[in-house]
Amino acid sequence: MTRRGVGTGEGRREQGGAASPKRAAFPAGGVGGSVEQPRAPPVHQPAGTAARSEEAPARARAAGMAGPGWGPPRLDGFILTERLGSGKYATVYKAYAKKDTREVVAIKCVAKKSLNKASVENLLTEIEILKGIRHPHIVQLKDFQWDSDNIYLIMEFCAGGDLSRFIRTRRILPEKVARVFMQQLASALQFLHERSISHLDLKPQNILLSSLEKPHLKLADFGFAQHMSPWDEKHVLRGSPLYMAPEMVCQRQYDARVDLWSVGVILYEALFGQPPFASRSFLELEEKIRSNRVIELPLRPLLSRDCRDLLQRLLERDPSRRISFQDFFAHPWVDLEHMPSRESLDRATTLVVQAVKKDQEGDAAAALSLYCKALDFFVPALHYETDAQRKEAIKAKVGQYVARAEELKAIVSSSNQALLRQGTSARDLLREMARDKPRLLAALEVASAAMAKEEAAGGEQDALDLYQHSLGELLLLLAAEPPGRRRELLHTEVQNLMARAEYLKEQVKMRESRWEADTLDKEGLSESVRSSCTLQ
């Protein structure tokens, strides 16, 4: 007789099917290592690991589990078909519900005979965590059941395989693809972080794809997950060495920040084709983990500044210097604010209303800024929308806003050039008064170079970099400058440069929104959005 747990599945509860998984409901022992679906062999494993995977069928037969030569087990309400993956203690099958819906699911079968105390803890943790989670980028546990031989976790089916296979078949991922995936992973981790849950075994094999056509990431395998507050420290070694934070190996003491290191390794592998500690042997791997050397990023492929910054901050060996969760979620490359969601259209509409109001008041600069911010939300809104008719309606509106933004851009661009020229006399006087201050003079020269770049077509990013470099020096010099005419001029110039830098930063961010606009690229709108919100 099969007993049913209380996932979202239907059916009468029998004895042992409590609302929360109780230890008394299962025999001693449990599920250990992670099993993914569909799962390919791990990449970049040290030599000697293949033999262990060959032992899995023998262990499965001994434990009473189904395998390739002896057919899947039988489970009430489902027809189990092909095997998707297997591990030390469990096998995952594709299955169909016998109901009229013929829903496709993945069923994780755990052999009771193979269970030990640690495995029971992992299994109960996985059930407890997944039962209470509903998130678009976390695999859903629909139900769980058990019989005399196995425990069954009935999971959402992900037809696209895992991220490891996806990366391997493409060698490396373009930055814009990696960014979309990272947004989705960050969204799932933010959801978990808000509930003080750490995954502790993040790796590409534990990240599934909903499909191969327009895939969405689904975080899976919570066997090692823990409810951890930010100050909690653990001393138990968990996870996979290639993706494991150094403090887990070197200090055997760690907290939730180990997940951020693992995210960095996953992103590194997606962009460069292999994890930073890829090794030929476990000895070599251990040496790399225990080393104090800074993780160096390859020069190729070329990546954006924000992407490299995030990678370096994630792959910081010292957890106290590693990027925090809040800074990770707020990082401009991750940009969760503009991730496609049901709120994207509402936020875009709100900004458009404000833009129209400013436009009617004659404030061209404010109106252009608001139109650009609105378009920054319309791009993900179009990605999120699945109804073709609604999508066409949104596109029509976007076309109108792009046209108006083009008109405003010409007005604002002309005004900006005039303002730059007006400040020339004060700027020249400040430069004359800085002749005895080489450091101040050099910083002002950098600011002049930034202005020249800003006037040049397509030089926004270079201009922004120069503005930021100049301001870094000028702010320090302003703090040390004694009262007087030179200080007054310097203060005014710093204010002007900061305003220009903030404006350019907004324009550059708007231009980079095309990374989230693959669909718009195909439909010819992305270039219009980018052009309209980038001043020449």
The strand count comes to 10
Mean pLDDT reading = 79
Count the helices. How many?
19
CATH architecture of the largest domain: Up-down Bundle
Can you put this structure into words, describing what you see?
It is a single chain. With 536 residues, the protein is an alpha+beta fold. Helices cover 49% and strands 9% of the residues. The chain has helices at 50-54, 56-63, 117-131, 163-170, 175-193, 246-250, 258-272, 282-290, 305-314, 325-330, 344-360, 364-384, 388-422, 424-433, 438-455, 460-480, 485-512, 518-523, 526-532; strands spanning 3-4, 78-86, 90-97, 104-111, 141-146, 150-156, 197-198, 207-209, 217-219, 226-227. The strands form three sheets. It has a six-stranded antiparallel β-sheet. It has a two-stranded antiparallel ribbon with strand order 7-10. A hairpin with a 6-residue loop joins strand 3 (90-97) and strand 4 (104-111). Helix 7 (258-272) crosses helix 9, helix 14 packs across helix 17 and helix 15 (438-455) runs antiparallel to helix 16. The longest helix has 35 residues, at 388-422. It is globular. The model is unreliable at 6-69, 514-519 and 521-530 (pLDDT under 50).
